[in-house]
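Issue: copy button drops trailing tokens. Both records pasted manually instead:
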Amino acid sequence: MKKIIALIALIPLLFTGCKVGNVSHSGGVESESYLQFIQGGNTAYKEGVEVYIDDAAAFTAKVNQIGKYTVKGDIYAIKNGTRHLKVVYRGKVLFEKDIVVGVQETKQIKLP
């Protein structure tokens, strides 16, 4: 009987002693920032807008209508730092400015 009790007491100790090595993961903050385009006026921008960042090729971005109950819209990753941003819709420049974005910062661009 004493052997059974001793065996039952040793079983948990056997399972806790099975760890091999230390497993860890370290990672830094991603060196990215984000842009979000917000509808400021009555224009819906259904086809999206063309976005030029620095001298890179343009990409099409969706313009979100942020309301009282909107949680999240579409965001676009860019490199952090000072960037020259130009937003064009149907050939018309809506926004052109040098912006500064920090690491992991989401910059909202409000369009007319």
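Record 2 (pasted manually too):
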Amino acid sequence: MELFIFEGFTAGGNTAQASEDLAKHSLEIFGIGRGTETAAKNIKIERTENGKPYSDTVPWEFSVSHTGQLWICAVSERTVGIDIQEIRRIDHEKLADRFFTKAEKKYCRTAGKEGFFNIWTRKESIVKYMGTTLGKGISSIETVIDGTPADRLIIDGAVIHMTEIEIGADIKCAAAAEETGEICIKTLN
């Protein structure tokens, strides 16, 4: 998996178009790295009814997320989901009560706001991996096993590997993927 990061992403203007352009650029770089430049040309990005971006013009899977001025795109040859969040001031207990399982809520009470964002980014990355929405049963997916966030989950018979990715202070990032492996981080200019 390759993770493309762009610093300086702003909410001004057309963020959807800016995100799509960055995703196309990420897919192009991913393709060039695999010697398949032709597959990366004329990339067209579509969205599922739940909003998950995909492309029939390249043979790779990708997922995007942004927080503040950070934008990221995970690209893989297998199914992937990514989420990034700034650790910020929110009513994390109220959100945990709404979306988290009993074990996840207990973990958050112990780990506080940082623990909340550990679980939140995992759930969001799973949502993106599955191509669904938070409101469609995600609160029943258990991401904490034996009191700690799990590295491997089985959901609907599929094995999903969870990886926390270090991006920077006060930032949480998690990836959900079909397989484990090295994550190569690249910065976009």
